[in-house]
Amino acid sequence: MRQVNESRVVKVTNTRYREHYHIQTPAGWLNDPNGLCFFKGYYHVFYQFHPYSAEWGPMHWGHVRSKDLVHWENLPVALVPGDSEDSGGCFSGSAIVRGNRLYLIYTGHHYYDDDNQDHFWENQNVAYSDDGIHFTKYTGNPVIEAPKDNSQDFRDPKVWEHDGQYYLVLGSREQANNRARILLYQSDDLLNWQYRGPITESRSIELEGSMWECPDLFRLNGQDIIACSPMGIQPQRHRFLNLSQAAYFIGQLDYNQAHFSHYDLHLLDYGHNFYAPQSFLTPDGRRIQFGWFSSFDNPMPEQADGWAGALTLPRELVMHGDRLGAIPAQETTQLRTGEVLNTSAIIHSPHRFTVTDPQHTEWDLTFDLTGYDGQVSWQLANTDQVLISLSYDQGSGEITVHQHGQASDRYATIGHVGQLRARIFVDTSSVEIFINDGAATFTERYYTDDQPVTTTLAASRPTATAIKAYTLDM
Ligand code: FRU
């Protein structure tokens, strides 16, 4: 198995933006979460990794594991590219346990010409491990090659088991019409795969995209869901404002017909910085998702310090009415190192709360809005500017999130609610906001240097508010 060349590995030169309780690289670049699974007593998370610089480059699979989903241990890099079937990179993929063995299924990326990254081809490969630490690439790779009508985009396999058979979906763009589609494959041993065909296709590039990266097909509350990361969607008023989005379809997969019938595409997260999420099932049956806490089109000031990117906290996917939502995984309470506020107050004019470590704090706020008509807000600021703010307007039923430095705000409509609960996780350079147990999430980065950070609550009319705050650390 190939090894990382330790003498070339980049180093972190400044810790000012380093996260305290999110998964990040020891140094170097990170993008998508990959291969989420539970194997032999540990949760495993892999991620797209470039160890030699803080820029995207030939993709490796970085690796961490945990006993509890929140305290992570760094492991050796699991996949190093450069073999004939992954000459240009080990791109995203997923994991599955079969017997005593952990299998990774990932995309091999290949350039026709090393000096031109615009022209490439992709295939699907397998690697396996019996100890969950050391991986062997399967000698029969590739296990899947693109069908004839495919464009060069053919990647990000997500594997699962159903009725004693293995299935995988992957993201593809058809050559003739340039549209996104999801392809289905079936196998009885994870090594020999039968092509079942496209199960759904984008109805229009403008509305649904030209490529769905990182598709994730899973079942929740009796429905099949495909989460994916569409490219090329045009903004629709307050929706789809990012260049790269994370979204989902709810529907039903007909395994016999190889067809996924579904409703419209919805956003998974309403923030500026959420892309390429993946999910897996915990041993106790919860569907847990991690996302990349950024996307290719966002500034990353931490690159100047020798690293880039983080993963979100683990989120439990839940149905909220007829929509998919997320709540913080229950294990995140184990990150609390102290309770710093537990009070109720009537909030009216801006009220600044002093906590010991404002950049490493979880806020659990409940605004009582019965018989109310107005706005409430939370904000994180330094002496010069508001870094992140959240406000809810009961008249429009809309939440607005502002991030300093971003050209436009982000929005989610949750309707008229009697109570607004916001769980807000602040880390050194990130904020994750969870509204009303699955109604909406916002994933945001912020960057501030050497300045005191403050937290302020405000309301346009007096509002009874329950306020809890905890310091957090991994
Ligand atoms: C999504 C993505 C995937 C690809 C990987 C490469 O962010 O573009 O489609 O496999 O990143 O790093």
TrEMBL record:
Keyword Hydrolase: yes
Residue ranges annotated for the Glycosyl hydrolase family 32 C-terminal domain, each copy included: 333-460
Pfam families reported in the protein's UniProt record: Glyco_hydro_32C, Glyco_hydro_32N
Record InterPro entries: ConA-like_dom_sf, GH32_Enzymes, Glyco_hydro_32, Glyco_hydro_32_C, Glyco_hydro_32_N, Glyco_hydro_beta-prop_sf, Suc6P_hydrolase
GO molecular function, one term: beta-fructofuranosidase activity
EC number: 3.2.1.26
Transmembrane parts of this sequence: none
SUPFAM superfamilies documented for this protein: Arabinanase/levansucrase/invertase, Concanavalin A-like lectins/glucanases
Principal location: cytoplasm
Biological or metabolic pathway of the protein: Glycan biosynthesis; sucrose metabolism
Catalysed reactions listed for this entry: Hydrolysis of terminal non-reducing beta-D-fructofuranoside residues in beta-D-fructofuranosides
Domain Glycosyl hydrolase family 32 N-terminal: 22-322
Localization annotation: Cytoplasm
PANTHER family on file: BETA-FRUCTOSIDASE (PTHR43101)
Function, in words: Enables the bacterium to metabolize sucrose as a sole carbon source.
Similarity comment: Belongs to the glycosyl hydrolase 32 family.
Keywords of the record: Carbohydrate metabolism, Cytoplasm, Glycosidase, Hydrolase
Name of protein: Sucrose-6-phosphate hydrolase
